[in-house]
Amino acid sequence: MSRKIVIRGGKPLFGEINISGAKNAAVAIVPAAMLVEGVCRLENIPNIVDVMAQLEIVRGFGASVRFVNPTTVEIDSTHINLSHPPFELMRKLRASYYTIGVLLSRFHRAEVAMPGGCNFGGARPIDLHIKGFETLGAETAIREGGFICVEAKNGLKGRNIFLDVVSVGATMNIMLAAVLAEGQTVIENAAKEPHIVDLANFLNAMGAEVRGAGTDVIKIVGVEKLHGGSYTIIPDQIEAGTYMAAVTATGGSLLIKNIIPRHLECISAKLVEMGAEVEYFDDSVRVSRSGPLHKTNIKTLPYPGFPTDMQPQLAVPLCLTEEGASVITEGVWESRYRYVDELRKMGADIHVDGKVAVINSVPRLSGAPVKASDLRAGAAMIIAGLAATGETSVEEIVHIERGYDNIVGKLQAVGADIRYMEDAPDGAARVG
Ligand code: UD1
Description:
Blueprint: E1 2-8, E2 13-18, H1 23-32, E3 39-43, H2 49-60, E4 64-69, E5 72-76, H3 87-91, H4 98-107, E6 109-113, H5 127-135, E7 139-143, E8 147-151, E9 160-162, H6 168-178, E10 184-188, H7 194-205, E11 209-211, E12 217-221, E13 229-232, H8 237-250, E14 252-257, H9 265-273, E15 277-280, E16 284-289, E17 298-299, H10 311-319, E18 325-329, H11 339-345, E19 349-353, E20 356-360, E21 369-371, H12 375-387, E22 391-395, H13 398-401, H14 407-412, E23 417-423, E24 429-431
Parallel strand pairs: 2-14, 3-13, 9-10, 17-18, 21-22
Antiparallel strand pairs: 1-22, 1-23, 3-5, 4-5, 6-8, 7-8, 10-12, 11-12, 14-16, 15-16, 18-20, 19-20, 23-24
Helix pairs in contact: 1-2, 1-7, 4-6, 5-6, 6-7, 8-10, 8-12, 10-12
Bound molecules: uridine-diphosphate-N-acetylglucosamine (UD1).
Uridine-diphosphate-N-acetylglucosamine (UD1) binds next to helix 1, helix 5 and helix 6.
């Protein structure tokens, strides 16, 4: 049976939505718990496929994983070992590359299956991660069958590492490798995303010495070992931004709760240009729109620039502006426009040339069967379905479930007509 999400669009959204823990922080912090010989209690764990997969990977290395309540997990990595690495699980998940930094740090050796994950339609290399490990003293071999083996026979030694490209994954992975290395590691041209700061805060709470996360120079002084403790994962910037984009597209008013306002400034600046009203409180934000949508231009950049992970979602309201053409320039990935073909099925008028998409406004989007080609593309399809006239069905929703905790339930609670449906092999459809 294949599951899909079916939406009857055209309804404004009103009410409150609670934001879950940050996917991109959790997918690094869960494997980072394997650095600790003791128990890590992690709170605000989002219930999403990628995080559950990381927990399975950690369990596959022999850690004990126990949910205390639906959003709190205790991981005891005292007895982890490298005897039966969970290769197949790793291959399914891009963020399984964090396992390399963690195991290299703790055991001076890591063998992992080449990571999978979202395919945006361009290359997703990990050469900078490897270069970082090698600078710290590791040797790397690529084995037949898609395995990477990284080993530091004489241990890891702190060094200065300059990242040629600002990379979230490389910054975090090198940080993980360096926490138990001998001496000081300095990462220059580091990424500054909120999840980098969150990983550093987690590591420091367990006894690491990481300074400067959130700036472009991060210094890590290696310590002998980390100890157990409790840590609460930050709220998900991109999940919050997605609901902010949704209400901007549909009209209405949403109070989005459990957020960190400064993480959302780069997103709300664009939404305001597009005609939304945004009001911040201590840990919530109200986003409303009643007037027309206006065109704007967006360029994605590393944080604090506009996040590439919000680009597809913002493309939807830009289809429906009152006037003229908006331009999106992708500044992080080679290309990230696979969702455009799907939006065209709904009546969008978008021209893509390399990294640039020109979005001409259309009077309306019309419901259609579409696919979630990757995680954020899937979120864009849901927003398009909410804003469109008629019925939209979104297929391949496994991509959406990788990163959105209960998206259907959260949208139903604010007035959206959205539900799961299963196509049975006999062709009958069942509502879920
Ligand atoms: C992370 C996010 C992803 C987001 C991206 C950019 C996770 C699990 N995923 O992905 O959702 O879109 O940050 O904000 O956190 N690059 C190299 N060599 C490398 C690594 C990266 O050239 O070794 C390039 C990439 O091709 C890309 C750029 O650096 O052009 C940024 O990629 P990076 O920040 O590493 O993305 P991820 O960490 O994979």
